[in-house]
Amino acid sequence: MPIQFIMPKFDMDQETATVASWYKADGEQVELDEPVLSVETDKVAIDVPAPATGKLVRITAQVGDIVPVTTVIAYILEKGDTEADLPPAEAPKEQQVDIQPAKPAAAKPGAAVSATPVAMRMAQEHGVDLADVNPDGSKVTKADVENYLSRLATVSTGRVQVRATPAARRIAGEKGINLTEVPGSGPRGRVQADDVLQFNPALQPASVKSADRRQAKLVPLVGMRKTIAQKMQVSSQTIPHINISVDVEVSGMLAKRSKINEANLREGEDKVSVTAILVRVVAWALERNQFINASLIDESIHLWRDVNIGVAAAIEEGLIVPVIHHANQRSLSEINADIQLLAERARTGQLSLQDVQGGTFTISNLGMFGVKNFTAIVNPPQSAILAVGKVRKEFIPGIDDRPEVADLMNLTISADHRIVDGAVAAKFLADIERGLENLDMILF
């Protein structure tokens, strides 16, 4: 009997994945657990293995398609199977639906519809009867409800059909924007709210069709870049940020690092980075400041027992945050080795989902780029993020107020003010300063 090849679910809150590439073509032989395609979630690219050995047939998801999890995307014919054993192919869904604007629908008596919690909440908010939604998979997902709403919100302009979400229609109406001029980035060219918000009529010529593309290189906001944009926009608009900075004197820390690295050189071990020391010290400080190692989820503040520190890393596609799990229980050398390994995986696109999951706090270090100080945006649902500037030499008052040269590092915490008060954030920075000035207390 043919084996269904479904789009797997990698994360608890994941509802869709984007097909990045197929390693095998329709009709080719595949082996059990052999990587067959690569998909992208909002966090990382992952290879999907074959669920069985046999012939790969009836591939329905193409590169670039956004596919709900659990959707059948192909079949594998095992030994003895033929294509006659496949279930009947589904007829193509209608691309254009002439339907009246959405109205709250009463629930159908006795109708039992399987749906994800997000889909049920969205349907309730928009007055949609889930029994009217035709899911792509075994249950109704957020994407299915969005597609249904977009069909309801299709705008007719003569013979032109513009697919648009309800939010996109509302924003376009408020701004007086003609949706026919807005390029859509959603499934099948659907116009999203972000498309309308980013649309600038002043940059458009009289006719989009006759636009002079030589004036600018157009880079579609898709994949990781789009995910970053959406998350940062949500964070900036919904989280009341509080930012507190402090200059920390790190001459002692740098001297201790030099001694550690001299010993490591003699032992043939890798040098320890400043970031590794920061991760260890921050982990120690997080144990003493629970509300910094926390998240606001469903009207409750979760104080995490685990201390999992994400270290933001820049890659060509954008920004990725690999996570050092249980950093408070790791030695400095273990943390240093993990940072090097994760950085290499990030550069080569080999990060696994485990490598980027479970972070409870984030460090963003731009010191290597010569940045003196900056503020970072909280990575939800975390409650705070630490921005680290470069180590710089400055004169400070010394003995008898005589000027002395010192190594200073600027640390800025950005925190969710709904969870973290100013005094709590200030104490956390003070603990980091104390830890950096007394490394032996933490390391040994």
Biggest sheet strand line-up: 11-20-19-18-14-17
Query: What is the chains' assembly state?
Result: single chain
Q: Largest sheet at a glance?
A: 6 strands, mixed
Helical fraction: 25-40%
Q: What does this protein look like?
A:
This protein is α+β, with helices and mostly antiparallel strands. Helices cover 28% and strands 23% of the residues. The strands form six sheets. It has a six-stranded mixed beta sheet. Strand 19 and strand 20 (403-416) form a beta hairpin. The chain is globular and about 90 Å long.
Give a quick set of tags describing it.
6-stranded mixed β-sheet; 444 residues; 28% helix; 20 strands; alpha+beta; 4-stranded antiparallel β-sheet; 11 helices
Write the layout of secondary structure elements.
Blueprint: E1 3-6, E2 16-22, E3 29-30, E4 35-40, E5 45-49, E6 54-57, E7 66-68, E8 72-77, H1 117-126, H2 142-152, E9 155-157, E10 160-162, H3 166-175, H4 193-198, H5 223-238, E11 241-249, H6 251-267, H7 274-287, E12 294-297, E13 300-303, E14 309-311, E15 313-315, E16 318-320, E17 323-324, H8 332-348, H9 353-356, E18 361-365, E19 384-397, E20 403-416, H10 422-437, H11 439-443
Parallel strand pairs: 14-18, 18-19
Antiparallel strand pairs: 1-8, 2-4, 2-7, 3-6, 4-5, 6-8, 9-10, 11-20, 12-13, 14-17, 15-16, 19-20
Helix pairs in contact: 1-2, 7-8, 7-10
Quick summary:
The protein is α+β, with helices and mostly antiparallel strands.
